[in-house]
């Protein structure tokens, strides 16, 4: 190389990939998306603006074609089939009993036009009557018949219970009046129909008490009256509730004993007499002592009428008791 020739210097510059051109691939994807959206909205516009005839043609175009002949064949063999061994099997040529689905061919427009949905083929649901399952209509009829039967039985039971209460009251009063020793106690008997049942009350009167003052001992007359009541209710299936009541006069005995204990003891003594007179012990559903909290005469808390025994013959279990007034 001569001394006067300048050296040739080649400088290569590499582009930074972080700030280079990204290419045009995204434009193709965006163009495809916009084309698809335009085609979709164009289809919606065509469906909305087309008349019934055009919709019918469009539906026919997309509806699947399905042969409905169901025959073995009308060609050269006329429905016969040649087996592998050369035997000929003649086809029946009759329509198959299995119904082939039509895929909406009866009314294809119903698929595209909501205005024709009410004209779609009716769907018939068949029920297997050989099993235990029943169609809804038959189930409703059975339920209605069952409810009517239950209502009839409940009304009949209610009527019988009302008649039984009248008969029970008359039977007890007649036996008390017919018994000379108990005739005077007929004034101590009261009958009341409550929300729990028929309440028979043995009420004290001036000069005539069911129990000795401050005592739960049952005297002979009270025992005879309770025996009459027991004979009348012994054969009934109804539960029995017994409650004892006192007046507001404080108990004058021991400090630990009060009208609460006295009323409860009188109710328990009444239960024992009823059981001894023939009433099943399992019939006694409840005994309670309420002291002077439920007086017959609220205006006179110390009145003798407030001292009493209540024997309630409960409503039969198959009859719903009425709500308390």
Automatic annotation (TrEMBL):
Any Pfam family hit: MotB_plug
Regions crossing the membrane: none
InterPro entries, per database record: Bact_OuterMem_StrucFunc (IPR050330), MotB-like_N_dom (IPR025713), OmpA-like (IPR006665), OmpA-like_sf (IPR036737)
UniProt keywords, alphabetically: Cell membrane, Membrane, Transmembrane, Transmembrane helix
Boundaries of every OmpA-like domain copy: 198-317
Keyword ATP-binding: no
GO cellular component: plasma membrane
Disordered: region residues: 128-158
Principal location listed in the UniProt entry: membrane
Compartment(s): Cell membrane
UniProt record similarity statement: Belongs to the MotB family.
PANTHER family, A to Z: LIPOPROTEIN YIAD-RELATED, STATOR ELEMENT OF FLAGELLAR MOTOR COMPLEX
Name of protein: OmpA family protein
Native organism: Sagittula salina
């Amino acid at each position: 190389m001569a001394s006067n020739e300048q050296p040739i210097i080649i400088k290569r510059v590499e582009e930074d990939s972080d700030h280079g051109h990204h290419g045009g691939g995204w434009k193709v994807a965006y163009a495809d998306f916009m084309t698809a959206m335009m085609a979709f909205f164009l289809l919606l516009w065509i469906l909305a603006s087309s008349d019934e005839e055009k919709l019918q043609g469009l539906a026919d175009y997309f509806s699947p074609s399905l042969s409905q002949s169901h025959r073995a064949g009308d060609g050269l063999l006329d429905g016969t089939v040649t087996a592998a061994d050369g035997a000929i099997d003649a086809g029946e040529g009759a329509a198959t009993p299995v119904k082939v689905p039509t895929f909406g061919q009866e009314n294809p427009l119903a698929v595209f036009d909501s205005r024709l949905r009410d004209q779609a083929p009716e769907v018939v649901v068949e029920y297997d009557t050989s099993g235990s399952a029943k169609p809804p209509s038959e189930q409703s009829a059975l339920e209605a018949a069952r409810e009517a039967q239950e209502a009839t039985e409940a009304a009949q039971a209610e009527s019988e219970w009302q008649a039984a209460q009248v008969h029970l009251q008359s039977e007890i009063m007649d036996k008390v009046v017919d018994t000379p020793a108990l005739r005077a106690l007929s004034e101590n008997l009261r009958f009341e129909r409550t929300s729990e049942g028929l309440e028979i009350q043995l009420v004290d009167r001036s000069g005539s008490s069911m129990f000795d003052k401050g005592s739960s001992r049952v005297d002979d007359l009270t025992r005879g009256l309770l025996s009459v009541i027991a004979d009348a209710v012994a054969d009934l299936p109804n539960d029995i509730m017994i409650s004892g009541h006192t007046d507001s006069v404080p108990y004058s005995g021991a400090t630990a004993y009060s009208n609460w204990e006295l009323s409860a003891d009188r109710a328990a003594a009444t239960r024992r007499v009823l059981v001894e007179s023939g009433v099943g012990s399992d019939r006694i559903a409840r005994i309670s002592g309420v002291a002077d909290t439920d007086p017959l005469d609220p205006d006179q808390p110390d009145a003798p009428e407030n001292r009493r025994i209540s024997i309630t013959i409960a409503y039969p279990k198959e009859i719903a008791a009425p709500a308390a007034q």
